[in-house]
Amino acid sequence: MLTEDPKSVILGGGLWLRLSFSEVSTLIGLEKLGLDRIEEDDQWIKLGSQVTLRDLQTSTPLQSLAGGILSQASEHIMGIGVRNVATIGGTICGRYGFSDLLTALLALDARLVFFKTEELSLKQYLAKKKPLRDILLSIRIRKTPGAGYFHKISTTALDFAILNLAIARRAGKYKIVVGSRPGIAKCAENAMEYLDQIENPSESDILKATQLALEELTFSTNLKATQEYRQELARVYVERGLKAVIGLEY
Q1: Are 216 and 193 spatial neighbours (Cβ–Cβ below 8 Å)?
Q2: Which pairing describes strands 26-29 and 8-11: parallel, antiparallel, or unpaired?
Q3: DSSP codes, 172-194
Q4: Total structural domains within the chain
Q5: Which of 94, 120, 142 corresponds to the end of one domain?
Q6: How many Cα atoms sit within 13 Å of 55 on the Cβ side?
Q7: What pTM did the predictor assign?
Q8: Are 185 and 102 within 8 A, CB to CB?
Q9: Do 179 and 99 contact (CB within 8 A), yes or no?
Q10: How far apart are CA 220 and CA 230, in angstroms?
Q11: What whole-number distance in Å separates Cα of residue 99 and Cα of residue 163?
Q12: pLDDT at 217 over 70
């Protein structure tokens, strides 16, 4: 049904359909496919695409993964009523530039399992110019021990982010992700590569990595904030986040 008609649409949580599509011929529900479970084994946590943001917020395995950054990213998205309906699959496939969740998922190297398409990393999926005409079945996150930091800057606790960022340090590798720039979440590759080569980064190394991130990432102005303000926020919180995951005072 999805591939036969270009106006057919998968019904995720359904909260943003009015904003995303001008005309829909058929809504396809996934409620009876058993995709609303959180499962884990020795190596992976598997999130069904119909898992809600409230489930992410309250999941015990996720609260202990990389400092609980995925649970923290879910915690202040609208209110509980919205989080009880919105799904992780709908968030990913919507590829929203303001998403807090995408920022944390990128920092955790999330992988996406589809019905037909081969498994992709979230980074590969977001790099595609157009969304896939496929069904997202689940999201896989490796249970690698490590530290994490998530921060969202917004006018009020439940407002959309002016800027958000997630930083993880797992198995000696760094992830630095900044979202709502106001563009979609993106990794600071140069800064990550720089830190990966240093066994015990010093404060000067953190300052250098922060500057590399600012030079690589783009920021712009919209009604919420100016380009310059977002850059300054990124400078402060990337530095704080790196110090937090490394274990330095800030």
Answers
A1: no
A2: parallel
A3: TEEEEEEE-SSS--EE-HHHHHH
A4: 2
A5: 142
A6: 17
A7: 0.94
A8: yes
A9: yes
A10: 8
A11: 10
A12: yes
pLDDT in tens, 126-148: 999 888 899 999 999 999 999 99
Q: Which residues contact 193 (CB under 8 A, 6 or more apart)?
A: none
> Residues 6 or more apart from 246 whose CB is under 8 A from it?
147, 169, 201, 206
Helix (H, G, I), strand (E, B) or coil at 164: strand
Q: Interhelix angle for 203-216 vs 227-246, to 10°? A: 140
Q: Same structural domain for residues 42 and 107?
A: yes
Determine contact, residues 211/137, Cβ cutoff 8 Å.
no
Question: Does residue 85 lie in a domain region?
Answer: yes
Distances (CA, A) of 112 to 40, 92, 127, 132: 15, 9, 13, 12
Q: Which residue has the higher pLDDT, 7 or 20?
A: 7
Structure tokens at 172: 């000696």
Q: Does the pLDDT of residue 249 top 70, yes or no? A: no
pLDDT value of position 59: 95
